[in-house]
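Let's practice the habit of predicting before peeking. Look at the sequence and jot down your guess about where helices and strands might fall. Then scroll down.
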Amino acid sequence: MKKLIIIVFAILTQLSPNIAQINKTGIPFIKNYTKDEYNAAEQNWAVCIDNRGVVYFGNNQAILEFDGVNWTQIPNANNSIIRSLAADSLGIVYVGGVDEIGYLAPDKEGRQKYHSLTSSIKESFKDVWKVYIQNNDVYFCSSKYIYVFNNKKLIKQYNNVEGGFISFFINSKLYWGDYRGLKVIENDSVVDAIGGSYYKDMDIFVMLPFSDAEILIGTIGQGCFLYDTETGKSEKVANINKNFKNLSETLSNSMLYQGIKLNDGTFGFSTIQNGFIVANNQGEILYHLDKNVGWKDNTVISSHQGKDGVLWLALNNGISRVEINSPFTNFNPSHGIDGIINDIINFNNTLYIATTNGLYYLVFDKNNLPKFNRAPIELIVWNFNHFTTSNNQKKLIIANQNGVFELLNSSKIIRISNEEYDTRITYQSKIDKNKLYVGHLGGLAYLEYNNGIWQDKGKVGSFKYTIESIVEDNDGNLWLGTALNGILKVEKNNIRNYDLNDGLPALNNNNLFNINNEIIITTREGIYYYDQNTDSIMKYKGFGEILYNRNDFISRLRMENDSIFWILSKQANKYSNDNNLEYIEKIIRNNDQITIIDLPFKRIKKFGFQNITPESDGGAWFSSSTEAIYYNPNKKVDNNYAYTSLIRKVNISVDSVLFWGTNYADTSSLIVSVRQPDYLKSVQDFKHNNITFYYSSPYFPTEELKYSYKLEGFEDDWSNWDIKTYKEYTNLNEGSYIFKIKAQNIYGIESEIAEYQFSILPPWYRTVWAVLLYFLMAIGVIVITVKLYTRKLRLEKIRLEQIVKERTEEVVKQKDEILLQRDEIAEKNKSITDSIEYAKRIQTAVLPSKEYAQEVLPEHFILFRPRDIVSGDFYWFTKKDNLLVLIAADCTGHGVPGAFMSMLGVSFINEIVNKHEVKHASDILTHLRADVKRTLSQTGKEGEAKDGMDIALCIVDLENMKLQYAGAYNPMYMFRNNELMEFKADRMPIGIYVKEKDSFTNNEIDLQKGDVFYIFSDGYQDQFGGEDGQKFKTKNFKEFLQEIHQNPMAEQRELLNTNIDKWRGKWEQVDDIIIFGVRV
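Done guessing? Here is the structure:
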């Protein structure tokens, strides 16, 4: 026993074991957590995972709970070291400490708490090294005792008074090792295992199922064995093969402490002095992880792998998360690589890496651990070229800042160019295999290899562009991608420059490839090709519609073979808002079928890739800024792994916690649950209407998660994805709410939705009791108000009755006076109306009669509709010297004022026409304007009356078929051959006008038989009516005349009259109307 205690707690010493280690492609991705991150002691002893995916660690200080975001400490009853942990299918975590055993369960507020089971045990049992769960039984295993609990009650106890050490559950059997050999519990008794005496005086620390009947047993110092449970035979694994011999020696010299069978069937071994070792069932060591991965020392105490494939390691100084299931491994600066990685090549079974600080190659040290040595070459190495000579000799060509070099061996490199070209790319000609083209900072050169000698032939062409890409077409023409000047095509005697005008989307970052005799170009905006028919650059459809429609920055395209391609691109907004992230896609082209594989590579989207190197096995190397990453296509990972989101804490004020993050499904046993039960649905007073939710998701293949939330009852839509792990709501109204949260991993897969339901009560003044009180108070107020108001009305009634009596007497008196006044007003109105009617008779008398019209006028009509009894519009006509003079006028005002103005106008016109020689229509209007201004004393002074008239005047000579027209504002319409001719009036009235001209315009028109002309006022067009109460408008007036002008003139009058009545409808007539129509 003393020996075992020394083994477990000895201070580490440096050993030099002969370790058979592979690590050809590097190590898995690892995330280390230090004591400063989890805020507890350095040393950790155990790991387990509950049914939610939350991880627990046994620490020297307490139980540590980790949900992917938050670390929580849960102390046990005696604050002892936590040696062992196990979680059952219900999510209950069982804990083994020092003289202390128990389990975790949430309290009523959802806080995980430790519950002791030690009271069931009388004796001191010291360290509980292992906890196992078999069916519904829990086994707490110390050196001397094993306690079996069921439903939190002790049901069995097994004793080993001589003292053992570690126990193991294998294939439903519990094995126990001590100095007498291997024991097993059968039929509730501790008995010797068949052949168990073989392990007498051996310290067994590992037992793992190897096959159906075999167990792999690992000891400290004595090696590893295969134990046959059926025959009891044991065999040293060192005798199986060389791999197992190396494995056994490695573990013996590393102080083996713990083991685990991983999900993929391989074995993991935790050691005290040599880290963590992974081997397959052939004994081949696959991985070796030690302090070079960032650990403080090489001690790994325990390991645990979850269903998601993530491997957790409890370290002597910290915790480590290893993506052991991932298809990606890497070499990094800890392996000796320095600088940004530009290119990777596997040449002659050696891995070479080109960086900004030189050339590095992979070797294995005396323990077969990988490391990189630096080759003897300075400055930047840009890339490699696999050159094959005419006799099939393989050469590795190196493009260096100081020229072109050839690798002779890892320790000898020679420059093969005479010039110190700042070389960016080299390319072996497909036409002339001995030619090696060199693209450099100042142009293009080429070398030739003949009879084992390199010759520098110098520059090609006179251009001085930086050449970054070279390819040859089937005709031997060179295609060159330049740094800033587009693409060059170099023929025998000609150089053609392709730029933006030829279809290139940009002048830089154009890389060229010959794929199936086509020149393919990767650009900043997708993949293009050279179209020989149009001699231009066009978008390439050969990789399918998806890539054709994308405008990504394609920085690299590499061919694995004729049908498999690798693309490195910057795909804007595909996985994040960071447009500078690089992404990798594998394109498989099978005839017209295109398959794009990109899901696995989302894991490595943040490494800043420079290049891709496909391997013959379907894998590939990716050159990132600081790491060489290898993709193993044979490792298949289920990225659709289901995972959960968790609401980890709910605060209703800064320091008041409503919920501590762990739901439970049973109020009696408090079993951990992902779902919120009804009895945990909170009801809060209105004063607690500010609430903050903290959430996480225990998704550990990567911790790069985004979250989206929604508060039902407050918002309808999910939020945008964000990395923030809390959400605060303030001033929520009363009501029922459900807070929902979901996570999304880097693969775009969403978690299950976590919910937290709660209700907020209304404030006291909006409760049912408050509303009832308000109702009763309102009724009381109404009753009192009604009584007071009734009394007031009664008193008011008495007062009003007295007032009514007094007012009635006064009203009777006033009524008699009003009746007398009414009679007087009626008499006056009758007198005025009689006077206006008489005025109408006078106005009618001064207007030409119908009989005179029939005598002197050809076919005609006159529509005359005064708005009032008398009109401000008038018509007039006469015949003098075989000339007909026709007038339609609109005087200022309506009714009596307009009638006075119209009679004044008729009087002036009679005098002008009868006393003067009638020659021009315009002269009549000029004379009329002078008479009006003189009679009304209009001089243009401010305050004078602006009365006057708008008028249309025609002189018709029927013998000579001539017509003169002059107008003041009022136009004339004439229809000839069904076409409307409009003759516009002068824009000045008959009366004073600021901008008046000396005379009016005289329009002379030759008449034709059948011509119809109309003169009119604006009363018809300005009449309101129709459905919307709008004006009839000039446009409608013209169209109506167009429609009826061929009808008989008398019929036209009736149509116009009926139409305006129909239009007017319920509206009053707004103006006097005069329309004078004549047919020649």
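How did you do? Residues 105 and 900 are 109 Å apart (CA to CA).
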